[in-house]
Amino acid sequence: MNRLRSALCGGLVLTVVAVGALIPMRGEISAAPAQQRGVRADIYMSAVTDGMRARNFVGATNQLHAVVEYENAAGEQFDVQLRDLSGIVVKRSRTAPLRGDGKTSVAIVVQDFVDSYAAGLDSLVHAPASSGVGSGGLDETIASTVFNCENRPDVPVPWPPAVPTPNPGSPPPTQSPPDPYTLWLKSTLTLVDSGRLTMAEITRTSQALLGLPDMQGAGAAAAADLAAANALYSQVSKQLARVPALLQPPDGAVQPDPDAGCALVTMASQQAQQASTRIDAALAALPDDVSNWTLPDTSARYDGQRFVACEQYSTELYLVVNNQPSDTPADSALWTLGDPGEPALIFAGPEQTDSTSIGTLALSYPDGATQIFARSVLVEGVNHSARVGAFVTDRNCRPVSGGRINFRMDPDGFGTLSSASEPIVDGIAQVTFMAGDDVPEQTNLPAPQRGRIQVLGQVGEGPSEVNAGTEFNVTGPAATFRIIVSPKVINPLEGDRGGITVEVRDRNGNKVADGTQVMLRVKEGSRGQLAYEQRRGAGPWELVVAGTEIELIARSGNTVLPVDPDPGVTRRQAVYLIPFGGDGPVTLIAEADGATGDSDALEGGQTRPTLFIQSYAEIYLPGVLKDAKSLPRPSPNQPHPTPSPRPTQTPYPTLTPRP
Question: Is the pTM of this model over 0.85?
């Protein structure tokens, strides 16, 4: 499971990779599903080797440790990658193969950062071409662009080059090969784009180096050269940005001006050489020993009203397969650096510190559950509780330790919280919600809001008060039933049967728990019986008459027939009303969780039962006409025709009623 969010805003990323997939282990940071060997791994940050997990470290820190805790490690190795706040890879390290259970750690020191930045800048500026023209550092890319400009072809006439027009009914015209200018243009624009991208990377790396607090002291000489180089690269980038429109004007009516475009390339080349010289001077001015330097504090883009994102460090866990790390982290742990201030932000969790989760509380259900039910819902396996958590930080996203967060419910009546106030430890505070025996009826609310509850968290008071919340649904036992039979009028002479669906809801209209047992029966004195279809093995489907009652279960709020305990028997889930006992009205009764409902509930203003078993008379015409015709079926509100005497028919192949 990739725990690193895509909107990380850069972050110091310590990446650890294990051979084989990983399975979750207990703790606040879990690993991804593992291979079948049962390997467990977890990664976290600590102030000391093999120390305790921490999410925040005091300011002026210059050495930390990434700790990999593992179980059942049979020869696995771990790759360690370190990224700074801007996302630059600072360090890569691979452990020796591991065995059994234990911990291993990787030290993180400031020297890693300085060495990485220096090597990165040198490579970005001076690296030779590795796969052809333009594939090296900025010096090589700019030189290739200048070479192209010195060997530019003439602009074709007309411009843009004419393209043959196809004629209807004629073979497609032969396309001419690209003219020399078009080929040159493609190559040159590729070099210009490559140069600008490389300059962006140079600027990012030099700014990361300038961001080290000690660069303004012991590294002041290097900082001056870096700042001068950045100013020159900014001018180079602006000049190169104007080149494409000169070489290939967006308006096809305007002629390209490669002379003007290449003049800008020449100027950019001269300034890039000056910037390259300043980069070299900066690298030479860096002190040899930076072991006493410190790492930058983390921060957030937040002006007190509008929050954008946290800038945090992160530790990541990657999977290594066939000696190669995977592309996706298996685990990650966000962490911060600096001395926390007053509580200012509440997030759902340490790994959800972005604009989408600010002001929300985390909600989790135990054992893979997805819903909460009142305790009077006794279906096996249903869940009656939830964990609600908060991650409290200062305005720079540093987790707060100390103080308390207050929790409350809105509205009351759905259950209880394990505590109204919890201490904040390393930013975390959690409380447990336990459902009550039933749910209050909320008919005064719109249907989607009935049965919903909020748990709210609050820290601070007055102007410094910070709030967050989460919302969830609590479903009660069965309370209302809607019995649907189609068609509503069943003609035994024509072999009709009515498909039955019972919609079962709690008192707020929410679907009851899957597996809720529902007893459906034909009211005493009513006509008809209940039946379903089944087959044994690959045999034919047969109608099984269950009699006047049958036990069903709810699934997604509607009733279905439970699976037959005999594995050789396949049942269809539908239940039917079939004729039995003559004509007349039918009332069906459903019962679940002590509540009942019947099919005589008023529908559409009717005041009479809505289900009938009714034999429509067939009128036999004179034999000379050689056919027969049935009367139209009347609606339930119209008088029914008197049936002609007719022998009793049994239109269904049936099995013996089940006991």
Answer: no
